[in-house]
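Reply to dn_fold:

You asked what the input looked like. This is it:
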Amino acid sequence: MSMLTAVQYACRRTGVPVPSTVYGTTDPQVAQMLALLEEEGNDLASRGTWQALTFEASLTTVATASQGAMSTIASNGFRYISNDTIWDRTNKLPICGPMDAPEWQAIQALTWTGPRYRYRIRGGNLLVTPTPTAGYSWYFEYVSQNWITDSGGTIYRQYFTADTDLLLLPETLCLMGLRWRW
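and this is what came back:
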């Protein structure tokens, strides 16, 4: 369902005049409908592991503890890594984690050299211990915060930029949530 169609449905159900266009409108009621739809979509996107918002990412390890920014590694609106999905495909081993702050600090104090890699996300960066060998192929699944796509289905985003943008979340939930927020 497009953003325009969703707002038009909501307008019909609430007695607001149905617009022919939404994005860039000067009608305050329609502009509010758009803002509330974005609010609802962002709220729904944060409430679960939606299949339409789950993506795969990969990285080639570097020989440092920090493997880089999650926003670069998982570039499609990274929200969080799905548990138990990071795998070293080079060595065919799982990467353990995520570790919390006390676990990470304990391992750092003990100079961990165990047989398996462990990870933590801190400051938006993927940290790994022990320091991996460069060149390994790691893959994982992650959940995105981007619940909107362009009409071609190639550009994902968190906020609308055109009437033709499409909702990736269940239409019924988006419409019911918009109506409730209105």
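The longest helix spans residues 28-45.
Hope that clears it up.
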